[in-house]
């Protein structure tokens, strides 16, 4: 039985990963402050990751899966660990500047992105801190993650509009492209890294295909069983007031990932899974006042 440590384990990415490995029969430890409900089957290590103390001493892990946000997060965890085999860090595509040459490759320039700001530069510094201490660590850079347990108001916002039979207010002509990756596919890739130990250690991850926001909204309505009707919104309205994504189109080159994991979840299937989860867990999504803005201003 493999033993894994997952930092967090109570919200979206880390929670899904924890439950995925519990279902596989792994011995799953989660490190968090115990301020939220824990998943069934995990072993809780209750500690603030900035004050771990001796909580990890005498424990050996086959894998550490870390969703750290800053270099300090990484450094303190490495200091606290006794021994482990593999370290997998969930970074972000926010490490690439918006002016960089696209599609972004793993060796593309890393710099501040004006849309993601400190979040992106903190992830860059976290990657650097990790590689200074462990050159064999794996780093994954996803685009927009989606699927069950997603607490970010993205597909859930479109579901709300569809369920209420509302027209959808679409930025401009709706041709801005998005790139997604299903959370289950992220877990499958982690499996491959742990089992095959590839020589490459930094991977952009995501679906190979991008999708326009118009087509993505249409697909979200379709899984609800509704047909989308659109109202186009002009350039002079701040997009993030009424829509789930920044006015920023980017594209990751995921060739290296596809050499390891080619069969990924289709967007239609993934969105159906998202909807099924959301219907019973809408209170777990951090909703934003998009509808209020639309009703008051558009």
Could you describe the 3D structure shown?
34% of the residues lie in helices and 18% in strands. It has helices spanning 12-23, 71-80, 118-133, 155-163, 183-196, 213-224, 255-260, 267-281, 290-297, and strands at residues 3-7, 27-32, 43-46, 60-66, 83-90, 138-141, 144-146, 168-171, 177-178, 180-182, 202-204, 211-212, 230-233. Strand 1 (3-7), helix 1 (12-23) and strand 2 (27-32) form a beta-alpha-beta unit. The longest helix has 16 residues, at 118-133. The N and C termini lie far apart (56 Å). 40% of the residues are buried.
Question: Mind sketching the topology for me?
Answer:
Elements: E1 3-7, H1 12-23, E2 27-32, E3 43-46, E4 60-66, H2 71-80, E5 83-90, H3 118-133, E6 138-141, E7 144-146, H4 155-163, E8 168-171, E9 177-178, E10 180-182, H5 183-196, E11 202-204, E12 211-212, H6 213-224, E13 230-233, H7 255-260, H8 267-281, H9 290-297
Parallel strand pairs: 1-2, 1-4, 2-3, 4-5, 5-6, 6-11, 7-10, 8-13
Antiparallel strand pairs: 9-12
Tally of separate helices: 9
Low-pLDDT segments, ≥5 res:
none
Please give the share of residues in helix.
25-40%
Q: Roughly how many Å is the radius of gyration?
A: 20 Å
* Structure summary, number of beta strands: 13
Shape: globular
Main beta sheet, described?
7 strands, parallel
Structural class: alpha/beta
How do the strands of the widest beta sheet line up side by side?
Answer: 3-2-1-4-5-6-11
Distance between the termini: 56 Å
* Strand residue content: 15-25%
Mean pLDDT rating: 97
**Order of secondary-structure elements:** EHEEEHEHEEHEEEHEEHEHHH
């Amino acid at each position: 039985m493999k033993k894994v440590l997952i930092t967090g384990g109570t919200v979206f990415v880390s929670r899904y990963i924890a439950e995925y490995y519990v279902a596989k029969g792994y011995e799953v430890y989660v490190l968090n402050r115990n301020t939220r409900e824990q998943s069934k089957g995990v072993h809780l290590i209750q500690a603030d990751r900035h004050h771990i103390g001796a909580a990890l001493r005498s424990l050996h892990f086959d894998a550490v899966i870390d969703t750290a946000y800053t270099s300090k997060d990484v450094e303190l965890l490495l200091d606290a660990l006794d021994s482990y085999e593999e370290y997998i860090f969930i970074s972000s595509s926010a490490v690439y500047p918006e002016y960089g040459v696209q599609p972004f490759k793993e060796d593309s320039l890393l710099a501040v992105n004006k849309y993601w700001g400190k979040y992106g530069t903190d992830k860059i510094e976290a990657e650097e801190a990790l590689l200074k201490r462990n050159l064999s660590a794996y780093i994954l850079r996803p685009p927009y993650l989606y699927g069950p347990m997603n607490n970010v108001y993205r597909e859930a916002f479109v579901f709300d509009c569809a369920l209420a039979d509302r027209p959808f207010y679409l930025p401009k002509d709706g041709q801005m492209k998005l790139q997604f990756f299903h959370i289950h596919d992220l877990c499958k890739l982690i499996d491959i890294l742990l089992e095959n130990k590839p020589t490459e250690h930094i991977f952009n991850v995501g679906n190979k295909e991008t999708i326009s926001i118009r087509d993505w909204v249409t697909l979200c309505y379709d899984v609800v069983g509704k047909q989308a009707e659109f109202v186009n919104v002009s350039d002079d309205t701040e997009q993030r007031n009424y829509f789930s994504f920044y006015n920023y189109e980017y594209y990751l080159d995921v060739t290296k990932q596809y050499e390891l994991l080619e069969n990924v979840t289709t967007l239609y299937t993934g969105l159906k899974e998202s909807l099924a989860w959301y219907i019973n867990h809408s209170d777990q999504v951090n909703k934003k006042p998009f509808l209020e803005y639309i009703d008051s201003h558009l």
